[in-house]
């Protein structure tokens, strides 16, 4: 169904339902149902023209005709998903509103939640029109002066987000993913409360567990708490939460469902310099020094995974590098015969926002790769920010990569073909390690497979990054905190010495033990309190009260007076200008201006970044707008603003984020020319999609071999969810296919 037909069908149903409930008397429920359908009609009619304009020009931003993907398309698709859900629900209401089994309260709450989501999506569509009016043809990242980008982000971060984390959680993704996201959201808000009590020294109590139970049964409360957490808790919270999978019990469960391999060994590479031959003339060598940044020389941890035991993998030299991991440190099972060395090797760099996770977190799918590819895999455990900011991780990954190239025989490979593979932050490091290898003159990998990589770490805007407002796995505030930590803007947590002595994983293990210890009493207390509340319900109803103790978020929203702006604001936003200068020919690769200026506090601009629905240009060009930011939206339209004050939103303004070894999209043409063939697997609904599209466009414009595959309806990080459903397995298989292409011997030239 095309967009216009869908909108007209929804409007017709909304008008029919509105008329029906308006005729049902003066009751509160009928009034709210009539009002919600009136709101759906209004927002759908306002949204359709904006989406139509975005869709009419979206093709100008694709990599090519065979790869129709960019942030504008993704935003339109997401809005269509919301419209489709409201259309389905409106049909259901129209067919069942007279039935005695019609669940009025449930349907009302869902309609109200999706109406708020539709309103916020309409605001995003207007923001996207502003990007169209400001950027050069084919450019997806924001172009404009300092005041414009600061104005945009100041407006954007104050938008209400809780509606996307409650009843509407994951509506844009494939249905098989949604139960997982529900579990994650409940776990996140529960862990957030636990983390907060830990900071204040209160520990785990039955009352905290009772509140966690309320998050599970109240989606509005959960959404509001989720929004508070993502906006206000620091990077150390996210490090702790993402590292939960490192706990022995959970990692063991994950490994039980993964492929069984003969070799899984954690190695510690000593910090010793060694020589590598130059590619141009192997008679000359260059010294590869151990990592030195921030903490001085230190060992680099790597994990060797191999489905078969191959020659060299049980050698005494390699065994001397093995680092104990406890009871499951070694999964080496001797065989009567060793398999010969494989011709290829995969060097893997894990994701985790530069701040969390290790090779153990990614071990389940790496074991599957080892089985399917039949080659050894070396996964690098680089040091994490904020304790080890840039360039420590890059130095360690480069050192480990060079060590693997030099010692591939110990790893069970002849090293004829080497693939560098990584996801998210690991994809970023794959590109930068290759750039550094080329700069040193040593062997670059034969190809790179990067899954949903981050190639632009500057605080800037793009249409796909607008999607971070609703992404439960990659919200904007979390992105900025991770980037700030990696850039050195976040210092080490000055918490009490007891917690620091335990270490991050020790703290998580301790807290988990306390959680299980109190689970029984907590569950009992929660059930007892719930039954007491239920038993007293009739008594409470007999006593007249002026206001319920707590209204749902949706209910409170109905009586909230609408205003142009909420009360939340950011004290300052410091940003950099990204200037993408390109011609109107979208096949030309734009040159990137690398300004090293740091910006002070944003100043008011005479240029309006935003355009109304009637102001979208027919041709994409940069235009000055002579009005203020208050004209961002058409008259009478006011999106919901956040009710949570944002105390920590570190929009990174450090000049180092413009370093091409941190933001490879900003690398010069000559640097990018040194990269090997690149295969990118991106997600259509990922806030990082435009990073992949623009990086592929730059490489394509330079004549470099590059492919871009875009999977639909899956979130960022699908590799770690490979065992969850058929869709994630198929997406993970695309990554494996790309690695196979890299490892395949080059075809012999025809005579």
TrEMBL record:
<keyword id="KW-1003">Cell membrane</keyword>
<dbReference type="GO" id="GO:0004806">
    <property type="term" value="F:triacylglycerol lipase activity"/>
</dbReference>
<dbReference type="GO" id="GO:0005901">
    <property type="term" value="C:caveola"/>
</dbReference>
<dbReference type="GO" id="GO:0019433">
    <property type="term" value="P:triglyceride catabolic process"/>
</dbReference>
<protein>
    <recommendedName>
        <fullName>Hormone-sensitive lipase</fullName>
        <ecNumber>3.1.1.23</ecNumber>
        <ecNumber>3.1.1.79</ecNumber>
    </recommendedName>
</protein>
<keyword id="KW-1207">Sterol metabolism</keyword>
<comment type="pathway">
    <text>Lipid metabolism.</text>
</comment>
<comment type="subunit">
    <text>Monomer and homodimer. Interacts with CAVIN1 in the adipocyte cytoplasm. Interacts with PLIN5.</text>
</comment>
<dbReference type="GO" id="GO:0047372">
    <property type="term" value="F:monoacylglycerol lipase activity"/>
</dbReference>
<feature type="region of interest" description="Disordered">
    <location>
        <begin position="581"/>
        <end position="604"/>
    </location>
</feature>
<keyword id="KW-0442">Lipid degradation</keyword>
<dbReference type="Pfam" id="PF07859">
    <property type="entry name" value="Abhydrolase_3"/>
</dbReference>
<dbReference type="InterPro" id="IPR002168">
    <property type="entry name" value="Lipase_GDXG_HIS_AS"/>
</dbReference>
<keyword id="KW-0597">Phosphoprotein</keyword>
<feature type="region of interest" description="Disordered">
    <location>
        <begin position="316"/>
        <end position="335"/>
    </location>
</feature>
<dbReference type="GO" id="GO:0004771">
    <property type="term" value="F:sterol ester esterase activity"/>
</dbReference>
<dbReference type="InterPro" id="IPR013094">
    <property type="entry name" value="AB_hydrolase_3"/>
</dbReference>
<dbReference type="GO" id="GO:0005811">
    <property type="term" value="C:lipid droplet"/>
</dbReference>
<dbReference type="InterPro" id="IPR029058">
    <property type="entry name" value="AB_hydrolase_fold"/>
</dbReference>
<keyword id="KW-0472">Membrane</keyword>
<keyword id="KW-0443">Lipid metabolism</keyword>
<feature type="domain" description="Alpha/beta hydrolase fold-3">
    <location>
        <begin position="657"/>
        <end position="719"/>
    </location>
</feature>
<feature type="active site">
    <location>
        <position position="424"/>
    </location>
</feature>
<feature type="compositionally biased region" description="Polar residues">
    <location>
        <begin position="581"/>
        <end position="596"/>
    </location>
</feature>
<dbReference type="InterPro" id="IPR010468">
    <property type="entry name" value="HSL_N"/>
</dbReference>
<dbReference type="GO" id="GO:0005829">
    <property type="term" value="C:cytosol"/>
</dbReference>
<comment type="similarity">
    <text>Belongs to the 'GDXG' lipolytic enzyme family.</text>
</comment>
<comment type="pathway">
    <text>Glycerolipid metabolism; triacylglycerol degradation.</text>
</comment>
<keyword id="KW-0963">Cytoplasm</keyword>
<keyword id="KW-0753">Steroid metabolism</keyword>
<feature type="domain" description="Hormone-sensitive lipase N-terminal">
    <location>
        <begin position="7"/>
        <end position="314"/>
    </location>
</feature>
<keyword id="KW-0378">Hydrolase</keyword>
<dbReference type="InterPro" id="IPR033140">
    <property type="entry name" value="Lipase_GDXG_put_SER_AS"/>
</dbReference>
<dbReference type="Pfam" id="PF06350">
    <property type="entry name" value="HSL_N"/>
</dbReference>
<feature type="compositionally biased region" description="Basic and acidic residues">
    <location>
        <begin position="325"/>
        <end position="334"/>
    </location>
</feature>
<keyword id="KW-0153">Cholesterol metabolism</keyword>
<feature type="domain" description="Alpha/beta hydrolase fold-3">
    <location>
        <begin position="346"/>
        <end position="491"/>
    </location>
</feature>
<dbReference type="GO" id="GO:0008203">
    <property type="term" value="P:cholesterol metabolic process"/>
</dbReference>
<keyword id="KW-0551">Lipid droplet</keyword>
């Amino acid at each position: 169904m095309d967009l216009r037909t869908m909108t007209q069908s929804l409007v017709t149903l909304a008008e029919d339902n509105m008329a029906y409930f308006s005729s049902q008397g003066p009751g509160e429920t009928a009034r709210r149902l009539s009002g919600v359908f009136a709101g759906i009609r209004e927002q759908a009619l306002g949204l359709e023209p904006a989406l139509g304009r975005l869709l009419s020009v979206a093709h100008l931003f694709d990599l090519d005709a065979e790869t129709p993907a960019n942030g504008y398309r993704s935003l339109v698709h997401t809005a269509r998903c919301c419209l489709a859900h409201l259309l389905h629900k409106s049909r259901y209401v129209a067919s069942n509103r007279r039935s005695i089994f019609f669940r009025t309260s449930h349907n009302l709450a869902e309609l109200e939640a999706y109406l708020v989501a539709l309103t916020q999506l309409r605001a995003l569509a207007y923001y996207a029109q502003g990007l169209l009016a400001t950027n050069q043809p084919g450019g997806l990242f924001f172009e404009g002066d300092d005041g414009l980008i600061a104005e945009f982000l100041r407006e954007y971060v104050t938008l209400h987000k809780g509606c996307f984390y409650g009843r509407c959680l994951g509506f844009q993704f494939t249905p098989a993913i949604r139960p997982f996201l529900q579990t994650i959201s409940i776990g996140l808000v529960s862990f957030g409360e636990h983390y907060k009590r830990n900071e204040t020294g209160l520990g785990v109590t039955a009352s905290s567990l009772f509140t966690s139970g309320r998050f599970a049964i109240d989606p509005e409360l959960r959404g509001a708490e989720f929004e508070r957490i993502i906006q206000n808790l620091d990077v150390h919270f996210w490090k702790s939460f993402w590292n939960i999978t490192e706990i022995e019990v959970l990692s063991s469960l994950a490994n039980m469902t993964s492929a069984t391999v003969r070799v899984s060994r954690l190695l510690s590479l000593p910090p010793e310099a060694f020589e590598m031959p130059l590619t141009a003339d192997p008679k000359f060598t260059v010294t590869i020094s151990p990592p030195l940044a921030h903490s001085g020389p230190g060992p680099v941890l790597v994990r060797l995974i191999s489905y078969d035991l191959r020659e060299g993998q049980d050698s005494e030299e390699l065994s001397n590098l093995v680092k104990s991991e406890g009871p499951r440190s070694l999964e080496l099972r001797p065989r009567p015969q060793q398999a010969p060395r494989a011709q290829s090797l995969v060097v893997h760099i894990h994701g985790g926002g530069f701040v969390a996770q290790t090779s153990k977190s990614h071990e389940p799918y790496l074991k599957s790769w080892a089985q399917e590819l039949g080659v050894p895999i070396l996964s690098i455990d680089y040091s994490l920010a904020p304790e080890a900011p840039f360039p420590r991780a890059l130095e360690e990954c480069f050192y480990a990569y060079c060590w693997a190239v030099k010692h591939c025989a110990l790893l069970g490979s002849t090293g004829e073909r080497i693939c560098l593979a990584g996801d998210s932050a690991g994809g970023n490091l794959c590109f930068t390690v290759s750039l550094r290898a080329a700069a040193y003159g040593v062997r670059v990998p034969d190809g790179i497979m990067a899954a949903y990589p981050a190639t632009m770490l500057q605080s800037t805007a793009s249409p796909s990054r607008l999607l971070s407002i609703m992404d439960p796995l990659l919200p904007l505030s979390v992105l900025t905190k991770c980037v700030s930590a990696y850039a050195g803007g976040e210092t080490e947590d000055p918490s009490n010495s007891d917690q620091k002595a335990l270490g991050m994983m020790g703290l998580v293990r301790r807290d988990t033990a306390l959680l299980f210890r109190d689970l029984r009493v907590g569950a009992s207390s929660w059930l007892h309190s719930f039954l007491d509340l239920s038993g007293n319900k009739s008594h409470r109803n007999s006593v007249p009260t002026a206001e319920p103790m707590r209204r749902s978020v949706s209910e409170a929203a109905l009586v909230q007076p609408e205003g142009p702006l909420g009360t939340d604001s950011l004290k300052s936003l410091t940003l950099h200008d990204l200037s993408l200068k390109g011609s109107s020919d979208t096949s030309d690769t734009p040159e990137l201006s690398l300004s090293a200026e740091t910006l002070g506090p944003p100043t008011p601009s005479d240029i309006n970044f935003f355009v109304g629905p009637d102001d979208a240009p027919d041709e994409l060009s940069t235009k000055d707008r002579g009005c203020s930011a208050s004209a961002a939206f058409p008259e009478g339209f006011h999106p919901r603003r956040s009710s949570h004050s944002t105390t920590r939103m570190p929009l990174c303004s450090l000049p180092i984020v413009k370093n091409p070894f941190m933001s490879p999209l900003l690398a010069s043409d000559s640097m990018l020319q040194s990269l090997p063939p690149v295969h990118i697997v991106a997600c259509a609904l990922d806030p990082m999609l435009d990073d992949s599209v623009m990086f592929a466009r730059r490489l394509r414009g330079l004549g470099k071999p590059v492919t871009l595959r875009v999977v639909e309806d899956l979130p960022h990080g699908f590799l770690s969810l490979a065992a969850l459903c058929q869709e994630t397995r198929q997406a993970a298989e695309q990554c494996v296919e790309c690695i196979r292409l890299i490892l395949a011997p080059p075809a012999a030239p025809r005579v």
